[in-house]
Amino acid sequence: MIARRLRASLKGWGGVGAMLSVCVLAVAFALLLPLTHAPVDSAPGSGSTRLAEATQAKTDTCGKHPEQLSPQPSGDESGPAVTAVKQRGYLSVGVDQNSYRWGYRDPNSSGGDLEGFDIDLAHEIARRLLGDPNAVRFHAIPTNQRIPAIKSGQLDMVVRTMTITCDRLKEVAFSDPYFATGQQVLAPKASGITGYDSSLAGKKICTAEGSTANTALTQDKKNHKLAASTDISTTVPNQLDCLVKLQLGEVDAIVTDGALAASQAAQDPTVELKGKPFTTEYYGVAMNKGAGDLVRRVNQVLVDYREDGWQTSYDKWLSPTLGTDSASSRPPSS
After folding, report:
1. Of 108, 154, 221, 259, which has fewest CB within 10 angstroms of its CB?
2. Within a 10 A sphere around the Cβ of 173, how many other Cβ atoms?
3. Which of 241, 235, 204, 175 is nearest to 162 (CA)?
4. Structure confidence by residue, pLDDT tens digits, 84-100
5. Which band of pLDDT confidence, cut at 50, 70 and 90, is reported for residue 205?
6. Rounded CA separation 222/217 (Å)
């Protein structure tokens, strides 16, 4: 009946040609229809696929708050990524070994073990997942290798002052934020640099490759928010290399996270932070996009850590350089 009515109505449209057009439209509609339905989990273990798809959909419209896009915390340990870690018996974690008070080797300690705020968090994740804070194998990786190391499967996660951004969410998954910071300028005390302002005109700035600082400077120079004469061409694999270049007089200033800059200033009394932070950023634990169950489990660890452990670690490692009443002195809410 419907077909007869359709053929009758098409007589005034040009007959066969119109009928063909309708058929094409019908086929296209049939192909697009399945895309309007959300995927359905068929078993408890399939949650990680659904989470990965949901997270990717969010990053397409990431907006101004990428730190709010991580999945809900969960204590469930039956997922594939968490199960793989438990069967292996240890966590494989990428960290820094040169960031004072974050992840570094103290030459004055007897064993030369890694220590710092990020290292404490990695030990806490291992303790809550595996029952042993020392069930973790650390891998020192440079700033520009953090994402490749996760995507290749070399690491379970990176705990290395890594800022959550929309661009990075396209390649890796992030936990909820565990630290709030912002970009700042670090320069010699005797310099005429006053902050992230016109005093940077004609100056040579150092940033780490793949860092949010480098992204911010590149974008601001393109948008004419940074003086055209400011030289931002100097980049290094590791942030600490910028401090070395500053000490050698090869650059005039460094732009990096204020938390890292404060620690570098503590290492070298001839430099200081200049001006206020000009961005607001959050560090997160980075993981593989397919490891949704591990992301949720780490988020639950962070919920518990904020209540018991975070403040103790902050007071030990970061309070001497960042103070007790700064915006970074309390754990960020999830």
Report:
1. 108
2. 28
3. 175
4. 999 999 999 999 998 99
5. very high
6. 8
